[in-house]
Amino acid sequence: MLHDLSMRIDPGSTALLGPSGSGKSTILRLLNRLADPDEGVVRMHGEDVRAIDVLALRRRAMLVPQLPAPLPGTVAENVQYGPSLIEREVEVAPLLERAGLDGSYAEREAAQLSVGEQQRVMLARALALEPEVLLLDEPTSALDESARDEIERTLGDLRERISIVLVTHDRAQAERLTTRTVRIDAGAVAA
Amino acid sequence: MTGTDISLWQVAGTLVLVAIAIAASRWRHADVEEDLAIAVVRSFVQLTAVGYVIKAIFDSDSLWLVVALLAFMVVFGAWTARGRARAVPRAFVPLLVALATAAAATLAIVLALGVFEPKPRFMVPVGGMVIGNAMTAAAVALNRLADEIHDKANLIEATLALGATAREATLRLVARSLRSGLIPLIDQTKTTGMVFFPGTMVGALLGGASPLNAVRLQLILLWTLMGAAALSALIATTLAQGRFFTPAHQLVEPPPP
Questions:
Q1: Contacts with A82 from chain B: Cβ below 8 Å
Q2: Number of domains forming the structure of chain B
Q3: What ipTM was predicted for this assembly?
Q4: CATH of domain A13-189
Q5: Residues B127 and B239 occupy one common structural domain
Q6: DSSP letters along B110-147, please?
Q7: pTM for this structure?
Protein backbone atom coordinates (compact mmCIF):
# COMPACT_ATOMS: atom_id res chain seq x y z
CA MET A 1 0.00 0.00 0.00
CA LEU A 2 2.83 2.44 0.89
CA HIS A 3 5.82 2.91 -1.41
CA ASP A 4 8.80 5.27 -1.71
CA LEU A 5 7.69 6.95 1.49
CA SER A 6 10.19 9.06 3.36
CA MET A 7 9.06 11.48 6.01
CA ARG A 8 10.11 12.98 9.30
CA ILE A 9 7.62 13.85 12.03
CA ASP A 10 8.93 16.41 14.52
CA PRO A 11 7.59 16.86 18.04
CA GLY A 12 4.46 19.00 18.10
CA SER A 13 1.28 18.45 16.13
CA THR A 14 1.30 16.96 12.65
CA ALA A 15 -1.57 16.02 10.37
CA LEU A 16 -1.41 13.23 7.80
CA LEU A 17 -3.98 14.45 5.31
CA GLY A 18 -5.30 12.48 2.40
CA PRO A 19 -8.25 10.68 0.86
CA SER A 20 -9.61 7.34 2.12
CA GLY A 21 -7.39 4.42 1.17
CA SER A 22 -4.31 6.60 0.63
CA GLY A 23 -2.33 4.77 3.34
CA LYS A 24 -2.54 7.33 6.19
CA SER A 25 -3.76 4.82 8.78
CA THR A 26 -1.10 2.33 7.66
CA ILE A 27 1.55 4.92 8.51
CA LEU A 28 0.16 5.16 12.06
CA ARG A 29 0.25 1.37 12.36
CA LEU A 30 3.92 1.39 11.31
CA LEU A 31 4.71 3.99 13.96
CA ASN A 32 3.56 1.78 16.86
CA ARG A 33 4.38 -1.52 15.12
CA LEU A 34 0.88 -2.89 14.80
CA ALA A 35 2.37 -3.58 11.36
CA ASP A 36 5.90 -3.70 9.97
CA PRO A 37 6.99 -2.49 6.51
CA ASP A 38 8.08 -5.12 3.98
CA GLU A 39 11.07 -2.89 3.27
CA GLY A 40 12.58 0.15 4.90
CA VAL A 41 12.97 1.40 8.45
CA VAL A 42 10.82 3.34 10.89
CA ARG A 43 12.84 5.25 13.50
CA MET A 44 11.84 6.93 16.73
CA HIS A 45 14.38 9.49 17.98
CA GLY A 46 16.78 7.94 15.46
CA GLU A 47 16.38 4.39 16.79
CA ASP A 48 14.95 1.62 14.60
CA VAL A 49 11.57 0.83 16.20
CA ARG A 50 12.27 -2.88 15.76
CA ALA A 51 15.12 -2.50 18.24
CA ILE A 52 12.75 -1.11 20.90
CA ASP A 53 10.67 -3.44 23.06
CA VAL A 54 7.41 -3.48 21.12
CA LEU A 55 5.15 -3.20 24.17
CA ALA A 56 7.15 -0.24 25.53
CA LEU A 57 7.05 1.37 22.07
CA ARG A 58 3.25 1.12 21.99
CA ARG A 59 3.03 2.79 25.39
CA ARG A 60 5.22 5.66 24.11
CA ALA A 61 3.47 6.06 20.75
CA MET A 62 -0.15 5.48 21.72
CA LEU A 63 -2.76 4.80 19.06
CA VAL A 64 -6.34 5.96 19.52
CA PRO A 65 -8.44 3.95 17.08
CA GLN A 66 -10.87 5.37 14.57
CA LEU A 67 -13.83 3.57 16.13
CA PRO A 68 -13.98 3.37 19.93
CA ALA A 69 -13.12 -0.13 21.12
CA PRO A 70 -14.00 -0.22 24.83
CA LEU A 71 -13.10 -3.28 26.83
CA PRO A 72 -15.99 -4.94 28.69
CA GLY A 73 -16.39 -3.21 32.05
CA THR A 74 -16.61 0.26 33.51
CA VAL A 75 -14.97 3.43 32.28
CA ALA A 76 -12.57 3.27 35.24
CA GLU A 77 -11.59 -0.31 34.35
CA ASN A 78 -10.91 0.79 30.79
CA VAL A 79 -8.72 3.68 31.93
CA GLN A 80 -6.82 1.52 34.43
CA TYR A 81 -6.29 -1.38 32.02
CA GLY A 82 -3.10 -0.17 30.32
CA PRO A 83 -1.33 0.89 33.52
CA SER A 84 -2.39 -2.36 35.23
CA LEU A 85 -0.44 -4.32 32.61
CA ILE A 86 2.75 -2.76 33.96
CA GLU A 87 1.57 -2.85 37.58
CA ARG A 88 1.02 0.88 37.76
CA GLU A 89 -1.96 2.61 39.37
CA VAL A 90 -3.56 5.80 38.09
CA GLU A 91 -6.14 8.26 39.32
CA VAL A 92 -9.06 7.96 36.95
CA ALA A 93 -10.95 11.23 37.54
CA PRO A 94 -8.17 13.65 36.47
CA LEU A 95 -7.58 11.58 33.30
CA LEU A 96 -11.28 11.69 32.45
CA GLU A 97 -11.27 15.43 32.98
CA ARG A 98 -8.29 15.84 30.63
CA ALA A 99 -10.27 13.91 28.04
CA GLY A 100 -13.31 16.15 28.59
CA LEU A 101 -15.45 13.81 30.76
CA ASP A 102 -16.42 14.49 34.31
CA GLY A 103 -15.32 12.10 37.04
CA SER A 104 -18.84 10.74 37.57
CA TYR A 105 -18.43 8.68 34.40
CA ALA A 106 -15.90 6.42 36.11
CA GLU A 107 -18.35 3.78 37.28
CA ARG A 108 -20.51 3.72 34.16
CA GLU A 109 -20.34 0.81 31.73
CA ALA A 110 -18.11 1.95 28.87
CA ALA A 111 -20.13 0.12 26.24
CA GLN A 112 -23.32 1.94 27.30
CA LEU A 113 -21.94 5.42 26.51
CA SER A 114 -22.51 7.36 23.29
CA VAL A 115 -19.87 7.03 20.58
CA GLY A 116 -18.56 10.53 21.38
CA GLU A 117 -18.26 9.69 25.08
CA GLN A 118 -16.60 6.38 24.26
CA GLN A 119 -14.06 8.20 22.10
CA ARG A 120 -13.23 10.39 25.11
CA VAL A 121 -12.77 7.23 27.19
CA MET A 122 -10.34 6.04 24.49
CA LEU A 123 -8.42 9.31 24.92
CA ALA A 124 -8.38 9.02 28.72
CA ARG A 125 -7.28 5.38 28.40
CA ALA A 126 -4.42 6.44 26.14
CA LEU A 127 -3.37 9.33 28.39
CA ALA A 128 -3.26 6.99 31.39
CA LEU A 129 0.01 5.58 30.01
CA GLU A 130 1.61 9.02 29.69
CA PRO A 131 2.66 8.54 26.07
CA GLU A 132 5.14 10.78 24.26
CA VAL A 133 2.88 10.98 21.25
CA LEU A 134 -0.77 10.30 20.53
CA LEU A 135 -1.50 8.66 17.19
CA LEU A 136 -5.05 9.69 16.33
CA ASP A 137 -6.72 7.75 13.53
CA GLU A 138 -9.61 9.90 12.27
CA PRO A 139 -10.79 10.33 15.87
CA THR A 140 -13.95 12.24 14.94
CA SER A 141 -15.05 10.35 11.84
CA ALA A 142 -17.82 8.47 13.69
CA LEU A 143 -19.12 11.54 15.55
CA ASP A 144 -21.79 14.12 14.87
CA GLU A 145 -20.85 17.78 14.56
CA SER A 146 -21.24 18.80 18.20
CA ALA A 147 -19.38 15.73 19.50
CA ARG A 148 -16.67 16.43 16.92
CA ASP A 149 -16.32 20.02 18.14
CA GLU A 150 -15.99 18.86 21.73
CA ILE A 151 -13.31 16.28 20.90
CA GLU A 152 -11.48 18.89 18.86
CA ARG A 153 -11.51 21.27 21.83
CA THR A 154 -10.06 18.53 24.00
CA LEU A 155 -7.38 17.72 21.43
CA GLY A 156 -6.63 21.44 21.12
CA ASP A 157 -5.84 21.51 24.86
CA LEU A 158 -3.89 18.25 24.77
CA ARG A 159 -1.57 19.25 21.94
CA GLU A 160 -0.05 21.89 24.19
CA ARG A 161 1.37 19.15 26.41
CA ILE A 162 1.83 16.14 24.16
CA SER A 163 2.82 15.51 20.54
CA ILE A 164 0.05 14.35 18.25
CA VAL A 165 -0.02 12.77 14.83
CA LEU A 166 -3.52 13.18 13.44
CA VAL A 167 -4.79 11.16 10.49
CA THR A 168 -7.64 12.94 8.77
CA HIS A 169 -9.21 13.51 5.38
CA ASP A 170 -10.58 16.87 6.55
CA ARG A 171 -8.24 19.73 5.57
CA ALA A 172 -10.04 22.21 7.83
CA GLN A 173 -9.64 19.89 10.81
CA ALA A 174 -5.95 19.47 10.02
CA GLU A 175 -5.57 23.27 10.02
CA ARG A 176 -7.53 23.65 13.26
CA LEU A 177 -5.62 21.03 15.22
CA THR A 178 -2.07 20.86 13.87
CA THR A 179 0.75 23.13 12.88
CA ARG A 180 2.19 20.91 10.12
CA THR A 181 0.41 18.96 7.41
CA VAL A 182 1.83 16.11 5.34
CA ARG A 183 -0.35 15.23 2.38
CA ILE A 184 -0.52 11.53 1.55
CA ASP A 185 -1.83 10.28 -1.74
CA ALA A 186 -1.78 6.76 -3.22
CA GLY A 187 0.68 5.48 -0.64
CA ALA A 188 3.27 8.24 -0.96
CA VAL A 189 3.91 11.79 0.21
CA ALA A 190 2.13 14.08 -2.25
CA ALA A 191 4.07 16.98 -3.71
CA MET B 1 -32.09 -61.32 19.77
CA THR B 2 -29.76 -62.46 22.53
CA GLY B 3 -27.49 -60.12 24.43
CA THR B 4 -24.47 -60.43 22.21
CA ASP B 5 -25.35 -62.27 18.97
CA ILE B 6 -26.61 -59.89 16.35
CA SER B 7 -27.19 -61.08 12.80
CA LEU B 8 -26.66 -59.04 9.65
CA TRP B 9 -30.43 -59.29 9.07
CA GLN B 10 -31.07 -57.52 12.31
CA VAL B 11 -28.62 -54.78 11.30
CA ALA B 12 -30.23 -54.56 7.87
CA GLY B 13 -33.63 -54.17 9.51
CA THR B 14 -32.65 -50.77 10.89
CA LEU B 15 -32.18 -49.54 7.31
CA VAL B 16 -35.95 -48.97 7.41
CA LEU B 17 -35.18 -46.02 9.70
CA VAL B 18 -32.56 -44.76 7.27
CA ALA B 19 -35.17 -44.99 4.53
CA ILE B 20 -37.47 -42.82 6.65
CA ALA B 21 -34.66 -40.25 7.00
CA ILE B 22 -34.10 -40.26 3.22
CA ALA B 23 -37.83 -39.95 2.56
CA ALA B 24 -38.08 -37.01 4.99
CA SER B 25 -35.14 -35.31 3.29
CA ARG B 26 -36.64 -35.80 -0.17
CA TRP B 27 -40.13 -34.71 0.91
CA ARG B 28 -38.89 -31.45 2.49
CA HIS B 29 -36.11 -30.88 -0.08
CA ALA B 30 -33.41 -30.92 2.60
CA ASP B 31 -31.11 -32.34 -0.07
CA VAL B 32 -29.17 -34.65 2.24
CA GLU B 33 -30.25 -37.97 0.71
CA GLU B 34 -26.84 -38.58 -0.83
CA ASP B 35 -25.06 -37.62 2.43
CA LEU B 36 -27.31 -40.01 4.35
CA ALA B 37 -26.49 -42.84 1.95
CA ILE B 38 -22.77 -42.08 2.10
CA ALA B 39 -22.95 -41.94 5.91
CA VAL B 40 -24.61 -45.35 6.04
CA VAL B 41 -22.12 -46.98 3.67
CA ARG B 42 -19.12 -45.39 5.35
CA SER B 43 -20.28 -46.31 8.85
CA PHE B 44 -20.82 -49.91 7.71
CA VAL B 45 -17.44 -50.22 6.01
CA GLN B 46 -15.44 -48.34 8.65
CA LEU B 47 -17.00 -50.02 11.67
CA THR B 48 -16.77 -53.49 10.08
CA ALA B 49 -13.09 -52.92 9.29
CA VAL B 50 -12.48 -51.56 12.79
CA GLY B 51 -14.38 -54.53 14.22
CA TYR B 52 -11.91 -56.93 12.59
CA VAL B 53 -8.93 -54.81 13.66
CA ILE B 54 -10.17 -54.69 17.25
CA LYS B 55 -10.88 -58.41 17.23
CA ALA B 56 -7.31 -59.06 16.05
CA ILE B 57 -5.93 -56.78 18.77
CA PHE B 58 -8.07 -58.46 21.44
CA ASP B 59 -6.94 -61.87 20.22
CA SER B 60 -3.27 -60.83 20.25
CA ASP B 61 -3.64 -59.22 23.71
CA SER B 62 -0.74 -56.92 22.75
CA LEU B 63 -0.60 -53.51 24.42
CA TRP B 64 1.78 -52.32 21.68
CA LEU B 65 -0.94 -52.86 19.10
CA VAL B 66 -3.32 -50.89 21.34
CA VAL B 67 -0.84 -48.03 21.50
CA ALA B 68 -0.41 -48.15 17.70
CA LEU B 69 -4.19 -48.06 17.15
CA LEU B 70 -4.66 -45.17 19.59
CA ALA B 71 -1.76 -43.29 17.96
CA PHE B 72 -3.46 -43.72 14.59
CA MET B 73 -6.72 -42.41 16.09
CA VAL B 74 -4.90 -39.37 17.53
CA VAL B 75 -3.31 -38.49 14.17
CA PHE B 76 -6.54 -39.08 12.24
CA GLY B 77 -8.53 -37.13 14.85
CA ALA B 78 -6.13 -34.18 14.72
CA TRP B 79 -6.34 -34.22 10.93
CA THR B 80 -10.13 -34.29 10.99
CA ALA B 81 -10.36 -31.52 13.59
CA ARG B 82 -7.95 -29.41 11.53
CA GLY B 83 -10.44 -29.63 8.67
CA ARG B 84 -13.15 -28.22 10.94
CA ALA B 85 -10.93 -25.46 12.35
CA ARG B 86 -9.67 -24.36 8.95
CA ALA B 87 -9.55 -20.67 9.93
CA VAL B 88 -6.87 -21.39 12.54
CA PRO B 89 -3.40 -21.00 11.04
CA ARG B 90 -1.29 -24.20 11.26
CA ALA B 91 -3.78 -25.91 13.58
CA PHE B 92 -2.57 -29.50 13.07
CA VAL B 93 0.28 -29.49 15.59
CA PRO B 94 -1.73 -27.86 18.43
CA LEU B 95 -4.50 -30.39 17.80
CA LEU B 96 -2.09 -33.31 17.66
CA VAL B 97 -0.46 -32.29 20.94
CA ALA B 98 -3.90 -31.67 22.52
CA LEU B 99 -5.33 -35.04 21.53
CA ALA B 100 -2.19 -37.01 22.35
CA THR B 101 -1.82 -35.37 25.77
CA ALA B 102 -5.51 -35.69 26.63
CA ALA B 103 -5.54 -39.37 25.63
CA ALA B 104 -2.27 -40.25 27.36
CA ALA B 105 -3.06 -38.32 30.56
CA THR B 106 -6.62 -39.58 31.01
CA LEU B 107 -5.77 -43.21 30.19
CA ALA B 108 -2.76 -43.05 32.52
CA ILE B 109 -4.95 -41.71 35.33
CA VAL B 110 -7.73 -44.29 34.96
CA LEU B 111 -5.14 -47.05 34.79
CA ALA B 112 -3.19 -45.70 37.76
CA LEU B 113 -6.39 -45.47 39.82
CA GLY B 114 -7.21 -49.06 38.91
CA VAL B 115 -10.49 -48.07 37.25
CA PHE B 116 -9.67 -50.30 34.28
CA GLU B 117 -7.20 -53.10 33.81
CA PRO B 118 -4.46 -52.44 31.24
CA LYS B 119 -6.08 -54.87 28.78
CA PRO B 120 -6.89 -54.22 25.12
CA ARG B 121 -10.61 -54.89 25.67
CA PHE B 122 -10.77 -51.86 28.01
CA MET B 123 -8.06 -49.65 26.51
CA VAL B 124 -9.33 -49.67 22.91
CA PRO B 125 -12.96 -48.61 23.46
CA VAL B 126 -12.15 -46.20 26.28
CA GLY B 127 -9.24 -44.71 24.32
CA GLY B 128 -11.44 -44.34 21.25
CA MET B 129 -14.13 -42.50 23.20
CA VAL B 130 -11.58 -40.28 24.93
CA ILE B 131 -9.92 -39.32 21.64
CA GLY B 132 -13.24 -38.78 19.86
CA ASN B 133 -14.57 -36.46 22.55
CA ALA B 134 -11.22 -34.70 22.89
CA MET B 135 -11.26 -34.13 19.13
CA THR B 136 -14.75 -32.64 19.15
CA ALA B 137 -14.04 -30.36 22.11
CA ALA B 138 -10.76 -29.11 20.61
CA ALA B 139 -12.29 -28.56 17.16
CA VAL B 140 -15.28 -26.63 18.54
CA ALA B 141 -13.04 -24.52 20.79
CA LEU B 142 -10.60 -23.69 17.98
CA ASN B 143 -13.40 -22.88 15.56
CA ARG B 144 -14.87 -20.49 18.09
CA LEU B 145 -11.43 -18.98 18.78
CA ALA B 146 -10.91 -18.26 15.08
CA ASP B 147 -14.37 -16.66 14.82
CA GLU B 148 -13.82 -14.57 17.95
CA ILE B 149 -10.42 -13.33 16.81
CA HIS B 150 -11.77 -12.49 13.37
CA ASP B 151 -14.86 -10.70 14.74
CA LYS B 152 -12.99 -8.86 17.50
CA ALA B 153 -9.89 -7.90 15.51
CA ASN B 154 -10.48 -4.19 16.13
CA LEU B 155 -10.78 -4.67 19.89
CA ILE B 156 -7.70 -6.92 19.91
CA GLU B 157 -5.65 -4.29 18.06
CA ALA B 158 -6.90 -1.55 20.38
CA THR B 159 -5.80 -3.70 23.33
CA LEU B 160 -2.41 -4.45 21.76
CA ALA B 161 -2.03 -0.70 21.22
CA LEU B 162 -2.26 -0.24 25.00
CA GLY B 163 0.85 -2.37 25.42
CA ALA B 164 -0.90 -5.70 26.01
CA THR B 165 0.75 -8.91 24.82
CA ALA B 166 -1.07 -11.10 22.30
CA ARG B 167 -1.94 -13.43 25.17
CA GLU B 168 -3.34 -10.63 27.32
CA ALA B 169 -5.32 -9.23 24.38
CA THR B 170 -7.06 -12.57 23.81
CA LEU B 171 -7.60 -13.81 27.37
CA ARG B 172 -11.36 -13.29 27.32
CA LEU B 173 -11.72 -14.77 23.84
CA VAL B 174 -9.82 -17.90 24.82
CA ALA B 175 -12.02 -18.30 27.89
CA ARG B 176 -15.14 -18.06 25.74
CA SER B 177 -13.74 -20.53 23.21
CA LEU B 178 -12.87 -22.99 25.94
CA ARG B 179 -16.41 -22.72 27.29
CA SER B 180 -17.82 -23.41 23.82
CA GLY B 181 -15.70 -26.55 23.51
CA LEU B 182 -16.91 -27.93 26.82
CA ILE B 183 -20.55 -26.96 26.96
CA PRO B 184 -21.89 -29.79 24.74
CA LEU B 185 -20.27 -32.44 26.94
CA ILE B 186 -21.28 -30.65 30.16
CA ASP B 187 -24.89 -30.46 28.95
CA GLN B 188 -24.79 -34.10 27.89
CA THR B 189 -23.45 -35.07 31.32
CA LYS B 190 -26.07 -32.94 33.10
CA THR B 191 -28.99 -34.43 31.19
CA THR B 192 -27.73 -38.00 31.10
CA GLY B 193 -30.34 -40.48 32.22
CA MET B 194 -33.06 -37.82 32.03
CA VAL B 195 -33.15 -36.86 28.38
CA PHE B 196 -31.12 -39.66 26.89
CA PHE B 197 -29.35 -42.89 27.76
CA PRO B 198 -25.68 -42.79 26.78
CA GLY B 199 -24.42 -45.39 24.31
CA THR B 200 -22.09 -47.20 26.67
CA MET B 201 -24.83 -47.80 29.21
CA VAL B 202 -27.24 -48.98 26.53
CA GLY B 203 -24.54 -51.26 25.13
CA ALA B 204 -23.75 -52.70 28.54
CA LEU B 205 -27.45 -53.29 29.30
CA LEU B 206 -27.99 -54.93 25.91
CA GLY B 207 -24.86 -56.99 26.53
CA GLY B 208 -26.40 -58.39 29.68
CA ALA B 209 -24.75 -56.25 32.40
CA SER B 210 -26.76 -55.45 35.52
CA PRO B 211 -28.27 -51.94 35.49
CA LEU B 212 -26.10 -50.80 38.41
CA ASN B 213 -22.91 -52.00 36.73
CA ALA B 214 -23.96 -50.38 33.46
CA VAL B 215 -24.56 -47.10 35.29
CA ARG B 216 -21.21 -47.22 37.08
CA LEU B 217 -19.40 -47.94 33.83
CA GLN B 218 -21.18 -45.03 32.21
CA LEU B 219 -20.32 -42.67 35.06
CA ILE B 220 -16.66 -43.61 34.83
CA LEU B 221 -16.71 -42.85 31.12
CA LEU B 222 -18.65 -39.59 31.37
CA TRP B 223 -16.37 -38.20 34.03
CA THR B 224 -13.27 -39.40 32.21
CA LEU B 225 -14.50 -37.76 29.00
CA MET B 226 -15.07 -34.44 30.80
CA GLY B 227 -11.46 -34.42 31.93
CA ALA B 228 -10.17 -35.42 28.50
CA ALA B 229 -12.29 -32.83 26.67
CA ALA B 230 -11.25 -30.04 29.05
CA LEU B 231 -7.58 -30.94 28.77
CA SER B 232 -7.76 -31.19 25.00
CA ALA B 233 -9.63 -27.89 24.49
CA LEU B 234 -7.32 -26.14 26.96
CA ILE B 235 -4.14 -27.34 25.24
CA ALA B 236 -5.46 -26.72 21.72
CA THR B 237 -6.59 -23.14 22.45
CA THR B 238 -3.44 -22.32 24.43
CA LEU B 239 -1.15 -23.53 21.65
CA ALA B 240 -3.25 -22.15 18.79
CA GLN B 241 -3.73 -18.71 20.36
CA GLY B 242 -0.21 -17.63 19.43
CA ARG B 243 -0.67 -18.69 15.80
CA PHE B 244 -2.89 -15.68 15.12
CA PHE B 245 -0.02 -13.31 15.99
CA THR B 246 3.53 -12.54 14.90
CA PRO B 247 6.32 -12.58 17.51
CA ALA B 248 5.95 -8.75 17.66
CA HIS B 249 2.37 -9.10 18.97
CA GLN B 250 0.79 -8.13 15.64
CA LEU B 251 -2.31 -9.80 14.25
CA VAL B 252 -1.33 -12.02 11.31
CA GLU B 253 -4.60 -10.99 9.67
CA PRO B 254 -5.28 -7.40 10.72
CA PRO B 255 -8.80 -6.00 10.53
CA PRO B 256 -9.79 -4.42 7.23
CA PRO B 257 -9.18 -0.64 7.11
A1: 162-164
A2: 2
A3: 0.93
A4: 3.40.50.300
A5: yes
A6: HHHTTSS-S-HHHHHHHHHHHHHHHHHHHHHHHHHHHH
A7: 0.85
